[in-house]
Amino acid sequence: MIRTLILAVCCVMFPSLCPASSGWETVQSALKSIHAGWNLANSLDAVRNDLPYGSKVSDFETGWGQPVTTPEMIHMMKEAGFNAIRVPVTWSQHMDEGGNVRKEWMDRVEQVVKYVLDENMYCIVNVHHDTGTDGWIRADWNTYLGAKDKFRKLWKQIADRFKKYDSKLLFEGYNEILDLKPNWHESDADSYKAVNAFAQDFVDVVRKTGGNNRKRNLIVNTYSAGTSDATLKYFAMPKDVVENHLAVEVHAYCPWSFTDATDNYSTTVFDAKAEQEVTTLFRRLNERFVAQGIPLLLGEYRALDKGNLEERVKYTRYTVREAAKYGIPCFYWDGLLDRKALKWSELEIVNAIINNVE
């Protein structure tokens, strides 16, 4: 009786460590339950090539200007109405020549993941800047052949460490895999083949670790997490040994002229033309994935601050509304919270997200 009572109290205080129920949540149910997501960006994903292997974990975590993550930061996001956090993690700087992840780094990643799960929020942990323009995971077949063992070993270590956690924890196999040129928009058959191979390896390795990972909800991204016609066409959903536990992720900074461009193509007004681009994007994503029964999430979106807060609020509101039409949960990229001062820096955008999701 006492043991049962202690277990019950622990489950209330630390839900991430509760035993998984016999009915593991499907990925469809998880994505439907995610109302508002946010990226804990520029933190555990920060790259510091100037720091030698074995440097203080906090020196990496704060390497791009953010403070060390605390439970208070996560609690503020929860209190505001967010119920899911994507935790981008870069691993390469913390792996020895044999591909073994440094214990201190894995411990810190687990600690931050627990901050999220202990708020009873969904958490996505991934492999982040190991991809991209300077990553060792590239959309190139020869590169894949040389990196596949290291990639598989990395995911086995991650999966083994987190296998005891419940269905609120999701794994994302990789972030934005690019070819060697690198192309962000579209690539060639060789590159798409490599991305699809990494995706299959990720699913296979995680499933083989057993435990809760047998039915862990997993996420795979398209080439560059992109949405071009060719990228969507040549993406192949991995084979899985279980049903209803695999989703696809894309990123959308749309329209680019408004969200990111700072040159002559830059625009600062979110007008009817911009709205139409967003509308068209989600219609295409629905046709390719959602309408075909393939669960989908938008892992990143946001607009740079060009001194146009009111227009950025319009952009955010419109994006989450269009996504909600098709049941696509969205994760805002960074910002919103001044983590050093623990106060909201863009409360208007926070409200645009929370008040416009279904």
Layout of helices and strands, plus pairs?
Elements: H1 2-13, H2 27-33, E1 37-39, H3 57-61, H4 71-80, E2 84-87, H5 103-117, E3 122-126, H6 141-162, E4 169-172, H7 189-208, E5 218-221, H8 229-234, E6 246-251, H9 256-259, H10 272-288, E7 296-301, H11 309-325, E8 330-333, E9 337-338, E10 343-344, H12 347-354
Structure description:
The protein is of the alpha/beta class and 358 residues long. The protein has one domain (24-354): TIM Barrel (Alpha-Beta Barrel). 40% of the residues lie in helices and 11% in strands. The protein is built from twelve helices and ten strands. It has helices at 2-13, 27-33, 57-61, 71-80, 103-117, 141-162, 189-208, 229-234, 256-259, 272-288, 309-325, 347-354, and strands at 37-39, 84-87, 122-126, 169-172, 218-221, 246-251, 296-301, 330-333, 337-338, 343-344. The strands form two sheets. The protein has an eight-stranded parallel barrel. Strands 9-10 form a two-stranded antiparallel ribbon. α10 runs parallel beside α11 (309-325) and α11 runs parallel beside α12 (347-354). The radius of gyration is 20 Å and the shape is globular. InterPro entries: GH (IPR017853), Glyco_hydro_5 (IPR001547), Glycosyl_hydrolase_5 (IPR050386). This is Glycoside hydrolase family 5 protein. Residues 56-334 form the Glycoside hydrolase family domain.
Major sheet: order of its strands? 1-2-3-4-5-6-7-8
Number of continuous helical runs: 12
What CATH architecture would you give?
Alpha-Beta Barrel
Multimeric state of these chains?
A: single chain
User: Which structural category do the helix and sheet elements fall into?
Assistant: alpha/beta
Shape: globular
